[in-house]
What does this fold into?
Amino acid sequence: MTDEPLLRVRGLTKHFPVRQGLRATGLVRAVDGLDFDVRPGETLGLVGESGCGKTTTGRMLVRLLEPTAGTIEFAGRDITHAGRRELRPLRQDLQIIFQDPYASLNPRHTVGRIVAMPLQVNGIKPPGGVKARVQELLELVGLNPEHYNRYPHEFSGGQRQRIGIARALALRPKLIVADEPVSALDVSIQAQVVNLLRDLQRDLGLAFVFIAHDLAVVRHFCQRVAVMYLGRIVEIGDRADIYERPQHPYTRALLSAIPDVTRLGPAGRIRLSGDVPTPLDPPSGCRFRTRCWKARDICATEEPALVPRDGGDQATACHFPEVAGATEAIVEEVSR
Amino acid sequence: MSRFLIKRLFSATLTLFAVSVLTFLMFFALPRDPVTGMCPKNCNPERLERVRDDLGLNDPLVSQYAGYMKGIVTGRDLGSAQGGRCDAPCLGWSYVTNEAVSDTIARVLPVTLSIVIPAAILWLLLGVGLGMVSALRRGTWLDRMAIGFSLTGASLQLYFVGAVLLLVFVYNLRLLPVPSYTSIFDNPAKWASGLVLAWVALAFLFSAIYARLSRAQMLETLSEDFVRTARAKGLAKPTVYGRHALRAAITPVVTIAGLDVGGALGGTVITETTFGIQGLGRTAVDAVRSGDLPTIMATVLIAAVFVVMANVLVDLLYAAIDPRVRLR
Amino acid sequence: MSLSPVEGVALAEIESGTGSGGPGVKGVVGRSPGQLAWLRLRRDRTAMVSGALLVFFLLLGLAAPLIEMAYGVGPREQFQKLLDGFGMPLGYAGGVTGDHWFGLEPGLGRDIFIRLIYGLRTSLFIAFAAALITATIGIVLGALAGYLGGWLDAVINWITDLTLAMPFLIIALALTPTLTLRFYGERGQVSSAFGVGVLIAVFAIFGWTSTARLVRGQVIALREREFVEAAKASGAGLGHMLFRQLLPNIWAPILVSFSLAVPQFITSEAALSFIGVGLSDETPSFGRMIYRSLDFLQTDPAYVFFPGITIFALVFAFNLFGDALRDALDPKSSR
It folds into this structure.
């Protein structure tokens, strides 16, 4: 593993104009200035509530959406606004797995055609032939290679997601954006698919941007975790740091919401009051302040920067980061 | 709502403008001298030239068009050969019929209206009623009869149905007079008896299409959740079907009906030809046959106006039936 | 378009695998949605009967010269001797005899049966050609409008509205002689092929809107689906997106609309010939026969009935088949 990042994202922003008739009446700030890196072979988890901009981020990374501002560098090349032709060589290194295994496979194509599609559109003829490569891929994701002539409707949700994974692997990518790859699956199937992804990551040395709202799955799969709230990263760091020493109140609240059989009762649970504010008109200063129990005047006026704490890898965007060991006090404070 | 209306009216005007330009180009720019059709067979060159001058055919195309449009809006002077002053809406002068085109239109438009409006009422009532009943009585002999009727009707040709009706009711049974037009204000009984065959023929064919469409729509609506919810809530069948389902099922029918009625008002060419009634459609056909350009232009424009107006009306009706449309 | 030769090879390679391969492969070959629809169609008796009737009509049309040879009468032959002094056919039901199955035309004394056979040929050819051309135009414009959206969508939509606002019959009526003049001049002898061509062209100009609207709606419903995005994320071009990803998913409604468009064009052709557009009297056609026959409605009703019933049977068979096809392709839709 080198220190040179495979993916370098700086100030990534996506604003959707809201139109009424021909006039633009507002902007949805879906993603508002993200900075993060992904090193080769590394898995970065992107977590947050629904509507926080995770999926938008994923789509921008594979250039399904055009960023409003910021830069995306992949393998040292700026691909922020690259056209289809310039992207072609990079497509092979950068693929995506979708959330809905029912919508992500063309119902009129056989599995063989679906998995071979990336090869076709890029005009790649693998040695040994397309069919051999497709069967190899199906085997790799744990499907019967003889099933290449079947249609998607003949498969279960978990199998379909494996087909989607095989398609993403067809071009031997270096980075895969996985957009909630297991959240549409039954819990019992989720573990199998996540384990498959982990095996593939280890065996093929893949880097992942793993988008999820399920913190348990992310903990299982990701080496680094970025927590998003309302289009911003509020905290980013190594898995151990985030899960064991969360410094941002929001991370803390999210973690406390994980059902934990070892700790019974509501004691450890932080209940956030109110709803997520609308991204049409996000709060000034710190975006989390409207629901934060620590909010002071400064939070409304000054936006906290994402700065590393304790000289480590963990960075938090908060004026009053959590101090290790103070958790119990907070819980007490909130529950009062 | 008013903004929605303004937007629709604006795009309708734009469409009409384009239709007028296209029609103008089509007939005046194609390599057929309009004058040859307008003057009797043995025209001498001087006379042809004079007619061309009278018509302004030697002017550039743009100014011809501008003159034509100005005539429609404010009226214009056409010169003594064309009846002098022509008041708005001036549609030009026809050398074939030797009258102002607007007078021709004023004469034949009531004929087409008299054919289409009663026929449309008849076909909508019959078609939608039949479709609803057969949807509610799905699978019964009544339903099968309705399906058979609509399939047959949709495959029949108007001129054939018209011919059969004429043969039976006029020539063999002698129950009805030979179809003709009398003004409803002069003699309503004669008006009705002269046109009833045209109404029946049109209504027969169109109601078949509407029965099919409304049956399919109704069946689809009946299987939807909100209808089931309304039934489960304990609402009486007539309330559910009448108020909830009908409202949802009728919207696509309204769209098609608007377009059909609009199109029919622009001239029921086949009906008028079959029954020998001189309405807009027959007038247009005659105008084409005799190369009567001003009349062709006028009939095409009027037909387009009806279609476009029907479109706007349908959109407004839609907005009235389905409040979500207004938001767009 | 990204339909590179390599892509073709890759496709062929994948699809050639059907039925071959290792032992036990047969058991796992899946049924495509198309095969399932075909099976449903095969089980539908109405579809089979109307389909057989259509095939019969098609064969009649295709074999018209053969039938003429077997029947022994040509479409332009006149049998004046079999008409009375007023030009009316002698005998019953418009002169039906063993030699002239459907009788003779009053006035010219031409054989109605063989003219109907040739009229069938003309009508079917025009209807199929027009349906193919309009479907192609409609698919391309509709798919482009639906997939690309934006100003292109707005423009195509507006052109659709404009086309719908033009009174089809009147413009066709006015345009045909003008076009004929342009190509043949005042006195030129117009060939019947030209008349047929003009009719098809007029249908092509006015007939594409419904397919375009249909395809546009379907493409809009599909374009946000993730399999479309997957192709885009792999770098697929416009051609691949439209023809490989989107169209295979909407061929069912297209096929249904095609099967219902053919009888519409048959009807329209007859209607246009009826008001005297396009085909000259030389070319046998349904509409012209009915138009001529209306003058003899009282004196020779059989002349009206034979062509009228034939068109009805043909259009009826097409409509029945189209309905059955819709049921087979979309089992959820209710009849």
